[in-house]
Amino acid sequence: MKRRVTTFSKRSKNSPNEKLEASLIExxxxxxxxxxxxxxxxxxIVLDRLDKELTEEEGALVLKHEKNVSEKSQEIxxxxxxxxxxxxxxxxxxxxxxxxxxxPNDDMKGRVIGREGRNIRAFEKITGVDVVIxxxxxxxxxxxxxxxxxxxxxxxxxxxxxxxxxxxARIEEIYNQTHTDVLEFIQREGAExxxxxxxxxxxxxxxxYLGRLCFRTSYSxxxxxxxxxxxxxxxxIAAEMGLDENLxxxxxxxxxxxxxxxxxxxxxxxxxGADLLRRYNEPxxxxxxxxxxxxxxxxxxxxxxxxxxxxxxSASRPGARRETLENYVRRMEEFEKIxxxxxxxxxxxxxxxxREMRVLVNPGKTTDESAAKTCRDIVKALSERLQFSGEIxxxxxxxxxxxxxxx
Length: 407
Prior knowledge:
Shape: flat
Mean pLDDT: 78
Order of helices and strands: HHHEHHEEHHHEEHHHHHHEEHE
Number of helices: 15
CATH topology of the largest domain: Hypothetical protein af1432
Radius of gyration: 38 Å
Strand content: 5-15%
Low-confidence stretches: 1-13, 91-98
Largest sheet: 3 strands, antiparallel
CATH architecture of the largest domain: Orthogonal Bundle
Number of domains: 4
CATH superfamily of the largest domain: Hypothetical protein af1432
Helix content: 55-70%
Strand order of the largest sheet: 1-3-2
Structural class: mainly alpha
Number of strands: 8
């Protein structure tokens, strides 16, 4: 700085620019002396203040963009899932394996039981199921947790009844033949499922376990059809996101394979399926999808999230899972109970599978105008207190009858 002042003193003092420069330099020197800091220290303070201001502005800008990205990503995710569902609009009906065998007459029950119960004991020992023969006309009930075993027993019993010759040796002969037919059917179902979703090079044992799912239901939804549906949806979502569509289909097809043997192995079907897939050297993405598609822990692969979303879409599709009779009756009772809480209501009936409510009100306690208000109040109470899909039509009936007897 002294060098610059000395150089200035040697210059001509007649130039206005030089005078202005000298004045600025002098003011700058006095400013540094007053602030008791060097030029570098002042520069550091100014830059530090500027950095803090820019950091705050940057944070606000980042939050703004994060909000925009979050809203945009939700919109994109919704569009991807809806596009995949619309493209895969296959209609499937839930297949339920019955445990009842029709018989031509009640005399057949005695032949199935046999002398001193030898036929039914041999049948239960060979097939590994329980046979229930009661007063229900026209049917024999076959009971077993293993659905494959129950199907084999049902087919065996049907063939025995059609054949007419029922004795322990014939039971064993028919069962062995049925067992072979069922194994071939299972292998064929698994191979056709792989062919349908275009999954190649699957181990033959995995194909067999996959085929067993055709006899398994979950909330009345056939698990094999559910797995095929999840495979298609997973592949389409992955394609929309630019990921490997074939790998996503493989993950979706095998995500519930553990359900095929969960009656024989301890543990939940995700862990059983993951161990099964690991045994047959499936990719880590497939194993992780089977293990974590119902869980919220650390997700090691984006394919797991895709399979979880597709699994939820398939399970929640209207008509995919039918309600049990107990839940259905409970829901009807809840509908009727809410309607009967109103003081002017004499009785209420849920009809049309719960899609319509017919409410009878006391004509002495209500008018036509108040009946309309009661109808709206019942609709509001149903909407606020219960969760249901679709719509419920509420009809309030007010009727006055006059009856006389002529003598």
